[in-house]
Amino acid sequence: MGLLLALAAAVLTVVGISGLRMLRTTGLEDVEEQMRTAVAVEREKGLGPLLDRLGTRFLGLTMRLYGSVRLRRLEEAIRRAGRPDGVTLTVYLRRQAAFVVIGVAVLVLFAILGQPLIGVMMFGLLAGWMRLWLTTAGSRRQAQIESELPDFLDVLGVTVKAGLGFRQAVERVCEFHDGPLAQEMRTSLQEMSVGVSRRQAFVAMRERTRSEGVAAFVTALLQAEELGVPLASALDDIASDVRKDHAQRVRQAAAKAAPKVSLVVTMTIVPGALLLIVASVLLANMDTFRDIL
């Protein structure tokens, strides 16, 4: 009888520990470990591990607050940004929770010191830091894709003219490129290798990148495939159009930058120049001012 009681107690203990672990985890940790690469692990230095340890305690609550719809949108945003620094959905949520906790602590500290407004500003900055970082990384990656696309298409067109098929040509060109555009192309090739059609794979790439240049390339490529246009000449035309669109966007960006440059000049150089002029006038007429005074 005593042996049975001991065995039952051991079973209950194991079940209790397992239940406690299930309550404290989300089930995504194992998936996250499989997705992380050696490079991402190597980058985890400094503040990152501390934020992960702090945010782990609030991971489940953060996921429930986000909800399934917002989590899917967040996962899409992370994929669109190219998973910068190897960040997965779980890592993002952990660090988001950690920044919110730190923001609450800072808010309470400044409230005690009698500066609640500064505390609210710091809390807003910390709470929105991860979203700002992800948006910036996504915009930077999108701009890099836009700049790489014309040259990529030029090389792809030459490779197709050399006699290779489209898929083999893309694989060949991707071997000599390591940017985000080549990564997206490799993803599309992997999808096609498991049975996804070319149309579906490239439409998915267009949705992932949200790039105007990639969207124009995919649309023109699919239209050329439907109309039976020779692939080599179609790629030349697509590369020419994409290059023209890229140049137009660069000109638009330069036009938008002109007012910003004027504002910087007005706010910095002009006051400094006026200060020098006024100081020179005062120094040159110091004796006159003494007589007046």
Automatic annotation (TrEMBL):
- Specify the protein's topology with respect to the membrane: Multi-pass membrane protein
Which keywords describe this protein according to UniProt? Answer: Cell membrane, Membrane, Transmembrane, Transmembrane helix
- Subcellular locations according to the entry: Cell membrane
UniProt key word Metal-binding: no
Q: What is its main location?
A: membrane
Transmembrane helix as UniProt keyword: yes
Question: Where would I find the DUF5936 domain in this sequence?
Answer: 1-137
Q: Which residues cross the membrane?
A: 92-111, 117-134, 261-284
Q: What domain of life? A: Bacteria
* InterPro entries, sorted: DUF5936 (IPR045980), T2SS_GspF_dom (IPR018076), T2SS_GspF_sf (IPR042094)
UniProt domain Type II secretion system protein GspF: residue ranges: 152-278
Q: Which PANTHER family match?
A: INTEGRAL MEMBRANE PROTEIN-RELATED, PILUS ASSEMBLE PROTEIN
Can you say what this protein is called? Type II secretion system F family protein
Species annotation: Cellulomonas dongxiuzhuiae
